[in-house]
Amino acid sequence: MLDLKQFEVWFITGSQHLYGEETLRQVDEHSETISRYFDQSSQIPVRVVFKPVVKTPEEIFNIIQESNSAVNCIGIIAWMHTFSPAKMWIRGLQILQKPLLHLHTQYNRDIPWADIDMDFMNLNQSAHGDREFGFMMTRMRLNRKVIVGHWQQDHVTEGVGEWARVAAARHDMKGAKFVRFGDNMREVAVTDGDKVAAEMTFGFSVNTYAVGDLVKVINQVSDGEIGALTSEYAATYELASGLEQNGARHQALRDAARIELGMKYFLKDGNFKGYTNTFEDLHGMKQLPGIGSQRMMAAGYGYAGEGDWKTSAMVRALKVMASGLPGGNSFMEDYTYHFNPSNNLVLGSHMLEICPSIAEGKPSCEIHALGIGGKEDPVRLVFNAPAGPAINVSLVDMGNRFRILVNEVEATAVTEQLPKLPVARVLWKPAPDMQTACAAWIYAGGAHHTVFSQNLTTSHIETFAEMVGVELVVIDKSTTLRQLKNELRWSEASYK
Questions:
Q1: Does the pTM of the predicted model rise above 0.85?
Q2: In 278-403, which residue ranges form alpha helices assigned H by DSSP?
Q3: Is residue 164 classed as helix, strand or coil in its secondary structure?
Q4: Cβ(489)–Cβ(479) under 8 Å?
């Protein structure tokens, strides 16, 4: 996935000329020390770049204008070491185009009881300097993240790191391009939506390309490239009988490899960050892409089936956020239920396309018939996902706005053999319980497609929703249907 160290956030400290040069020198030194500490923290995946303290409206405006045009700058951390009159910030904040984190901290952790004097008080004023700054952002209705605590505390560096991950995903989404091979699955509602509104809200574009455009690239893949990829399959996965070299079904494996390479070259040449396809439009393709789509997701591309461009974009966003973290993120679907009163479970899966980044152990590469699509039997990776906490995330178009839903879940070990279900699968228990979670999801209009994440939390998605200005609905252990329905009513009133 992406190396997030290519991105940087700027550490900008506010003050004013009132306190004299010696105080400003100390402010500058303290700010540089904090930014260097952040830059070296293993919990913060991006560079943190110190910027000289700003003391006038002109300096503030200029540094924010510079950040807007800096290609690798994905956000700003702002801190008021002393009192920085917030009217100075108005023009700068009006042009700010990057995410903002307001760090409410102070250089010293403890009050030096025996030595504190007015010089110390004049230097260390963030307790009220940050409140002045906070008022102005609230007055201007600006979305931002606020983190409170001493800069060396773990929860602060963890919070900065989390925000930086989300800011990287936001940056990646700006100007991103997604391909729709063919159109939406016919007559399906939730996978469609307003692509113009999405580009205005999130910054990514979605355009359709004929399947024939892809097939042309697929047909140009050389036999040598196909052979090399089938050898990689054999080295990476457990090949089912018949798929091995000289096996009766080895040609199907080569066909799958050709399709994967064709998709890879198409996306790379067009600088696309994700795609969708649909089993209803496979003209010129021998099989529905299974292993190819699984591996493209594992390489960091967004993907969703049946033309679902919104979920494809969210797969990509979560993969960027999670770059470098253990565990994975995948396109997912709530497929069927286990309504055993003592053990309610959801079986999550899809026909073929679940990302092996969430697999437990070595996936098996298999070939089986597929009852839809009307093509040859597709090759796919079959595996189980491990137990552990996770989230399911859905982006839906409500007509007058977008809504992001999150359901916190607990994945459980797959203990049954499922010999007749040759697909990748996950079992989970949704919070707070099966009945409440499923009803809440339906009341909120959540899609049947989601992004399943093993390594991100609701907090990441909450920060993302605030960053892009989109409604968020969370279903967790504290959810009740009465409260959720009230929240949905309040949201309707707010957005009207």
A1: yes
A2: 291-298, 309-321
A3: helix
A4: no
Query: Residues 6 or more apart from 299 whose CB is under 8 A from it?
Result: 1, 264
E strands, 278-417, in order: 302-305, 329-338, 345-349, 364-367, 379-382, 388-397, 402-412
Report the C-alpha gap between 157 and 48 in whole angstroms: 12
Q: Which two tokens mark 208?
A: 């359709």
Q: What tokens does 210 get?
A: 């004929």
Cβ atoms within 10 A of the Cβ of 318, count?
25
Task: Say how many C-beta atoms besides its own lie within 10 A of residue 418's C-beta.
Answer: 13
Contact 84, 133 (CB under 8 A): yes
Compute the half-sphere exposure of residue 286: CA atoms within 13 Å on the CB side of its CA.
Answer: 17
One-letter amino acid at 274 equals G
Under 8 Å CB-to-CB from 207, ≥6 apart: which residues? 177, 178, 179, 180
Contact indicator for 106, 125 with CB cutoff of 8 Å: no
Can you tell me which residue has the tokens 């940087």? 8
Give, rounded to a whole angstrom, the gap between the first and last alpha carbons of the chain.
40
pLDDT means per 10 residues, the chain with 496 residues, are 94 94 94 98 98 97 98 98 96 98 97 94 94 98 97 98 98 97 92 96 97 96 98 97 95 98 98 95 93 98 97 98 97 97 96 96 95 90 98 97 98 93 96 98 97 98 97 98 98 90
Alpha carbon separation from 483 to 340, 486, 487, 492 (Å, rounded): 27, 5, 6, 14
Q: Are strands 302-305 and 274-277 parallel, antiparallel or unpaired?
A: parallel
Question: How many Å apart are CA 172 and CA 203, to the nearest integer?
Answer: 9
Q: How many CB atoms lie within 10 A of CB 208?
A: 16
Give the β-pairing of 238-239 and 8-14. unpaired
